[in-house]
Amino acid sequence: MPEPAIQIEKLTFGYHAGEKALDALDLEVRDGECLGIVGPNGAGKTTLVLTLAGFCMPDSGSVRILGQDLRRENLAGIRARMGFVLQNLDDQLFMPTVLEDVTIGPLKVGLPPAEAEAKAIHLLERMGLAPLANEFPGHLSAGQKRLSTLATALIQDPELLILDEPTLYLDPYARRIFIEQVRPLPHTRLVISHDLEMVLELCTRIVILDHGRIAAAGLPNALLADPALMAAHRLEVPHSLRRPNATAMH
Amino acid sequence: MSCHAALELDHHGRGASPVHGLDPLAKLLAAAGVTLAAISFPKHATGELLPLFLFPALLMALGQVPLRPFFRLLLIGLPFAVMAGVWNIFLDPARVRLPSGVEFSAGWLSFLSILLRYLLTAGTVLALIGTTSFPRLLQAFIRLHAPHAFVQLLNLLYRYIFVLTEEGRALTHAWQLRCPQRRLPDPAVAAGLAGNLFLRTEARSRRIYRAMTLRGYDGTLPFRTHEGWTRRDLLFLLLVLAATAAVRLLPLTQWLGGAALKFPGVQ
Ligand SMILES: Nc1ncnc2c1ncn2[C@@H]1O[C@H](COP(=O)(O)OP(=O)(O)O)[C@@H](O)[C@H]1O
Ligand SMILES: [Mg+2]
To answer: Is the minimum CB–CB distance between B162 and chain A shorter than 8 Å?
Structure first.
């Protein structure tokens, strides 16, 4: 069996002394899987992402990503192999135009400008974003921002893709387009979301994160269909999994 | 609001027009020539400076730069120019006598001269932004081998303006929604809002910085393409520099019958 894409052991992190946003967390993301992480507000999901990105350094425990230990001296190398779509919609696009934003990644790894731009244009076309290439990212719609951010991540050919609440603020149509872009990707993926229907659609396995640790893990159909488990973690059985007699009770 | 004007101007800088199409480096060097000429005129020069205004005016006209944000930004700096220049009125010992016999302190002339120079140089910079956009101007600076730290500082300032505008706008909207009857908060609330704005922009800048780091930002500016320096750019630069040199070195204003513009007899 190949080495897991992410291997986290006894990871503890707190923003302030005495508080633990992540509390002796054990988590494995297997090579090639699409793992969903669900859990209530404040569970530590975003903190986990920031730790994987190396912005929050563990207070204790170990994090191994793509076969490398997460340490300051490895950071640049590890980050280059990961793609991120972070929770906040407005903070990840920072160049004057969408095209320039998507082009930065390859430029930074030394691709000649013409080649980098061609690669970006090709990707934008594939994602249906070509008409937006010269727009100012700040003026895009939520769905367009999300897709553009995904493009900035994909252009770096990441081995691992991490999405934090990607469908937040998206209308059903934009959400559908986004999901259809993510679904066929071959990458190992970590999807964090309250959008349980999307998790059901995309993920091959899920974990429930609560109070900074894993409360349960298993197949999406099994875990998300358990009303007691869902309620215990401020979640709700998604509509598509509700049994007819359960809905008939009202 | 001034931030908004800056953004508007900068956004226009990404448009298309013959002036927009010129190499940013050519425009930057031409602007530098005009600015140098303006600075090098003697202290009391006034009317002689006027032909130089043709440069920003032409850039603006040909590039169809919007006037509102331009003048808004120009006005912001004006009080500083006035403060810098107003002392001349009292401190300049020289006197001026007009043909009509009226006599007054030459300080008025140097004051006027400082204002004109401010309007000229600031107007040129703004016209440059409105026809080039800030990031491309920075690229031109880098091609000139400007000090790295200087360019990065400008770059960060530019980004900060974006963040400040957006957060400032969000905050103002939040304020206006909750206190629709008052346009401006009272001082105590304003202090709170300012503190909030600082924390917001700080947190937001940090998130943006994170995003940049994840995409490999290492403190250097990324480039898309190198601008191509064409014969058109060279022609433009030479024309502007020649015209500027003519304005500076030849008594043009007198030839053009502009004697009225030139105050004679500074003693
Ligand atoms: N920048 C921060 N400073 C201090 N505490 C924070 C910060 N960010 C998050 N927290 C706290 O850490 C915990 C986990 O937050 P977070 O990871 O954002 O949760 P989630 O993404 O699952 O909603 C929460 O209790 C939250 O209040
Ligand atoms: Mg979160």
So the answer is: yes
Q: Which residue has the higher pLDDT, B222 or B112?
A: B112
* Rounded CA separation B65/B125 (Å): 13
CA of A47 to the centre of ligand 1 (A): 6
Residues of B in contact with A134 (CB under 8 A): 14
Beta-bridge mates of residue A84 = A162
The secondary element (H helix, E strand) that includes residue A198 is helix A196-202
Chain A environment of B166 (Cβ under 8 Å): 90, 138
> Rounded to whole angstroms, how far apart are CA atoms B4 and B9?
9
Any idea of the CA torsion for B43, B75, B33, B134, to the nearest 10 degrees? 150
Say yes or no for a CB contact (<8 Å) between B217 and A108. Answer: yes
In ligand 1, the atom with minimum distance to the C-alpha of A165 is 21
- A34-38 sheet: strands from edge to edge: A82-85, A160-164, A188-192, A34-38, A205-210, A213-218
Q: Say yes or no: ipTM exceeds 0.90.
A: no
Q: Compute the distance from residue A36 Cα to the ligand 2 centre, in Å.
A: 14
> What is the mean predicted confidence (pLDDT) over B148-173?
79
Q: Give the amino acid at A116.
A: A
pTM: 0.73
Mutate which of A15, A50, A168 for ligand 1? The one with the most ligand atoms within 8 Å of its CB, which is A15
Distance A56 CA to ligand 1 centre (A): 11
pLDDT digits (tens, 9 = 90+) for B180-229: 666 667 777 777 778 888 888 888 888 888 888 888 777 666 554 456 78
Give residues (CB < 6 A) around ligand 1: A 15, 21, 39, 41-47
Structure confidence by residue, pLDDT tens digits, A153-167: 999 899 999 999 999
Q: b/e string for A111-136 if b means 16 or more Cβ within 10 A?
A: beeeebbebbbebbeebebeebbebb
Q: How far apart are CA A197 and CA A199, in angstroms?
A: 5
Of all ligands present, the nearest one to the C-alpha of A40 is 1
Tokens 């300051």 appear where?
A72
**Distance of alpha carbon A219 from its chain centroid, rounded?**
18
The answer to whether B233 and B140 have CB atoms below 8 angstroms apart is no
CA of B10 to nearest chain A CA: how many angstroms apart?
Answer: 10
d(CA A165, CA B126): 41
Instruction: Say if CB A61 and CB A12 are below 8 A apart.
Output: yes
Tokens of A20: 């633990």
Q: Phi and psi at residue A13, in whole multiples of 5°?
A: -150, 135
Closest to A49 in 3D by CA, of B167, B207, B202: B207
> Do A100 and B218 count as a contact with CB atoms less than 8 A apart?
no
